[in-house]
Amino acid sequence: MLEEFEMASLMSRPDLPRIAESINATLRKEQSRREQFRHDLIPSVKAEFIAGEVIMHSPAKAKHLRVTDNLVSLLRHFVIAKELGEVFTEKALICLTRNDYEPDICFFGSEKAAAFNGETMQFPAPDFIVEVLSESTTFRDRGVKWDDYGLHGIKEYWIIDCDERSIEQYVILSGENKYHLARKLTEGEIESVVIAGFRIPVIALFDAKQNHLALQNILGLR
Fold this sequence. Notes:
The chain has 222 residues and is of the alpha+beta class. It is built from seven helices and 13 strands.
């Protein structure tokens, strides 16, 4: 966001109307491209629309898929058991003010989820998002997405690093619209601040046996 002094400087410029018109013309063209992007998007392709550009994603590596599947398994079963809302992965198109994203995992609380039907294809800002880092996405996951998710009030954001076997948990403090690092963990347990009661061992995301044990706990089988 523009700092106050930057905004004041911009507003005082004599050529402000010309600048505004140039920006508006750019945004109109961008919106046209965005509408075309949504029209052309197909289920077999993972793509995002960011700052006027279509970002195509290559197939994910096995380590990325395993971690994503491990967390989705735990999160989805917990949310279903507690009737807390809905969990989506990969192909849910999150439509924010300027950009369209397909995050690795997202959670909608009951109030937002109640508005979805079987034909819903464009979704509002979730309450919780997870991105699993890859070589091609790290700068966006830590850059424009970190900023945009925070600006849109997505209350909790996890960034998972498969190589470090770590989770960074970001939260929005009251009255703000940006993230603060709550904790970075490579061991122990992590507990969501948005999904009440969802508490899992970090190792359960990176180890299949530990994931199975954590799932048994969620299902009340242990």
